[in-house]
Amino acid sequence: MGGSVLAVQQIIKVIKEKLADRFLRNLGWLGLSQLFIRVSRLAATIVLARLLTKEDYGLAALVLTTNEFVNVFTQNGIWAKIVQADKADLPQLCQTSYWLNWIVCGLVFLAQCIAAFPVSWFYKDPRIILPICVMATVYLIIPIALVQASLSNRENRLHVSALANGIQVSVDNILTIILAFFGFGMWAIVLPKVLVAPVWVIVHYKNNPWRPTREFTLDKWQEIIRFGRSVLGVKVMHTLINNLDYVIAGRFLGVEALGLYYFAFNAGLGISMSAINALETALFPHLCDARSEPREFKSRYFKAFKSVAWIIFPLVILQSTLAPFYVPIIFGQKWIPAIPILILICMSAIPRPFANIASSGLWAIDRPNWDFMWSILFTAFFALSLIVGVNWGVLGVAIAVFLAHSLASPAYTAWVSSYIAKLMDKEIATIEAQETV
């Protein structure tokens, strides 16, 4: 009898070890994908820095920023609900989500095409109308595989996401290099993002067996919207945070100054943001998988901080230290004025992933509304910082970005982590008390 108990305990131990390793394994797949992405993006950045003008960069930034603001409505929490939902509800939620995705993406396509006109008026540049409308066509393609992508994340099969993103972005960067050589200007940045959209769809569609039925249904849509509205709110705030500096710099400092800032942001924060996005993608399903086991959930949550620290600190410090040397050599002398901006933006990456871990923790315990409220507060603080900073040009904007993240994000991370620790301890105590009885 004792031997059987021991065997069962050993099996449980092995299962837990496998679950614990899954996060690092998924992070490894995503990291490998990001490595290929970064190599191709580095090549594209070098080519663009030498062939495109600051004005080309500025125009592309205006188009991509507009797209980011509209695109956020496709990140409406439908995918997160599929990842977080109970297994019994999954079939109906997937079918409803499929049709909701088509409705939302169709409306987003129309919204972006309409928005192109007031945006061009705001920046006083009609050249951006057509590329903004062209980029909107992506929304007529991606609903085909959005549910499949969500299910792969739910099943912790993140190698599929890694493959889709790796191929899509790498091909995007290769096409960008080719078009830049042929003198396409800002279109070298914009057009490839439309051409590679089917790649993402094909990879996810082929790697997940789920298929919609012909029945149109919106059953349980209230449940999806109730969960998703807070997630959407958070994504809207994050999009504002990630793009407000572009909006303010472009409006008050001009297209050429925005081009300098946009180059510094992408050359400096691109690598770090790739690591941050890989972590965020892997962490949420990893935490949801352990939600019914508070001790395991707490362990996974706090181990994530250690994992990200080992990645982000060396990466940011190394890149910031070497920036004065590699920027003029790799990108050209004309980008030397961007070096201080690059360093500040790069350093602002340090607190960001820790705040993202806190957000994932709140989502996993069904508190996305708390994260939404925090996002509203931080966005207001961030906007105020940028408005003050813009008085000192693009360098002032970079300083504002650095200070806002460095002051606010650690405070939020500490507060959420304290709450999660107390909640998990309370649940652990309840379970132990029930076992004793």
TrEMBL record:
Pfam families assigned to the protein according to its UniProt record, in alphabetical order: Polysacc_synt_3
Transmembrane spans: 99-121, 128-151, 174-203, 308-329, 335-351, 372-390, 396-416
InterPro entries documented for this protein: Poly_Biosynth_Transport
The protein's predominant localisation is membrane
Keywords, comma-separated and alphabetical: Cell membrane, Membrane, Transmembrane, Transmembrane helix
Sorted alphabetically, the Gene Ontology cellular component annotations on this record are: plasma membrane
- Which topology term describes how it sits in the membrane? Multi-pass membrane protein
Q: Where in the cell is it found?
A: Cell membrane
- What family does the Swiss-Prot or TrEMBL record give for this protein? Belongs to the polysaccharide synthase family.
Q: This chain belongs to which protein, by name?
A: Lipopolysaccharide biosynthesis protein
Which species is this record about? Tumidithrix elongata BACA0141
